[in-house]
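seq:
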Amino acid sequence: MSRTVPSKHALNITDRPLARNKLDIPTVSLSAFAYLFSELISYAMDRAASITELEERLDRVGYDVGCRILELLSYRERATRRKPEILDILKHIHSSAWPYMFGKTADDLQQANAADDEYMISDNDLLLGRFISIPKSYSSFVPGSLVAGIVRGMLDSAGFPARVSAHFVEQPSSSKPTTTILIKFDESVMQRQAALDAAKRG
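struct:
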């Protein structure tokens, strides 16, 4: 007895495979994405009394998104076991979650020179900052605060609590600043990593 296999478009959205190229699964148009993000910023700006509060509001929105993205990616990849290493979750965000959200991997992932508990994910042309104009009175505002919230939500959901913030870093070779997501892991995460490293050494 033959069995009809449903097409990928007939599957529930959570059962569809991750997109391997632009032709696999329809994506949201850039114009729609840019409009939605600009409206989100306008909504938050109208209700924020300062730039700090605006960034905090975007961070909270991003946190909820990050929790759901990690759950969705884990479900689609049939991940039944969580890897406890710090580098594993950071590589997952850099190489799996970033392309899922922005169509490409982040440009850099590195550990801070001055602190073992700090890591940085950098994007030279973050999609979120491409289509918005920032007034001069908000010159220190970093649209990547939404992405910082997404990363924080993913880390927290995976059992890696951390403080996450977004920053602009000027690059002499480019007219655009790089958006850097700074991650500072909780002490409990570093203690667990130290125990794992000690177990490896025997």
